[in-house]
Amino acid sequence: MAKLEILTFPDARLRRSAEPVEKVDDKTRQLVDDMLETMYAAPGIGLAAIQVNVPKRVVVIDISDEKNAPLCLINPEILERSGEEQMDEGCLSVPGFYETVTRADRIRMRALDRNGEPFELDTDGLLAVCIQHEIDHLDGRLFVDHISALKRQRIRKKLEKDQRQAAPSSTDSGRRRAI
Ligand code: GNR
Ligand code: NI
Q1: Pocket lining for ligand 1, CB < 6 angstroms
Q2: Taking the CA of residue 121 as centre, how many other CA atoms within 13 Å lie in the half-sphere pointing to its CB?
Q3: Less Cβ crowding at N or C end of the chain, within 10 Å?
Q4: Does position 28 have pLDDT exceeding 90, yes or no?
Q5: How far apart are CA 48 and CA 174, in angstroms?
Q6: Average pLDDT, the chain
Q7: Partners of 109 in beta bridges
């Protein structure tokens, strides 16, 4: 197992669209295990592979209080959505910020598990929100895309400043490009 580094908004690599996994093999399972370790350590309730710079359609989630109910979604697809729900969301790639996002309340989804077996899940509430948040990542979207441009801009400026301070430049490497 290994803990992986999480990319931070506005890193352009978070904007890529992730590729489907063609074969669920030991390498995929190693990635899933490393992602679970990274998610639990963060701590977070979900993580998409794109956040650890792997542009594949792999997601891990655990919304349990005891952190003993890992869920692995490979090539997840939403089949149906209904209702509407507002929830305060955060993101490991947008550290320190929480904003209200409106999403479907109930979804039906299909994915492959860590053995490559297809399964379907009908769910609502936090798990439904989390799955939608993670599938957004796989398509290069972040929760800040669901809030006002003004709020997004404010968050971007603050995180760019944090990143400049965290990585002082030898040449100009401390400078981050704006998107
Ligand atoms: O840890 C997380 N908490 C969270 C809270 C509300 C809605 C979504 C989430 S997902 C987030 C972890 C993360 O960034 N996953 O991509
Ligand atoms: Ni996130």
Answers
A1: 44-48, 51, 89-93, 129-130, 133-134, 137
A2: 18
A3: N
A4: yes
A5: 26
A6: 95
A7: 78, 121
Of 38, 47, 91, which is best to mutate to test ligand 1, by the most ligand atoms within 8 angstroms of its C-beta? 91
Q: Which residue type is seen at 98?
A: Y
What is the structure's pLDDT at 154? 98
Distance of CA 75 to the CA centre of its chain: 14
Q: What is the CA radius of gyration of the chain?
A: 16
Do residues 51 and 137 make contact, with C-beta atoms less than 8 angstroms apart? yes
Closest CA to 15 of 166, 136, 157: 136
Q: Which amino acid is at 31?
A: L
Q: Which amino acid is at 14?
A: L
Quote the strand ranges of the chain, DSSP E.
Answer: 46-48, 58-61, 71-82, 85-89, 99-103, 106-112, 118-124
* pTM of model > 0.85: yes
Instruction: Give the distance (Å) from ligand 2 centre to CA of residue 110.
Output: 20
- Nearest ligand by distance to the CA of 89: 1
Answer positive or negative: Cα dihedral of 104, 102, 93, 15: positive
Q: Are 134 and 73 in contact (CB under 8 A)?
A: yes
C-alpha closest to that of 61 among 51, 142, 84:
51
Report the separation in Å between the CA atom of 143 and the middle of ligand 2, taken as the mean of its atom positions: 7
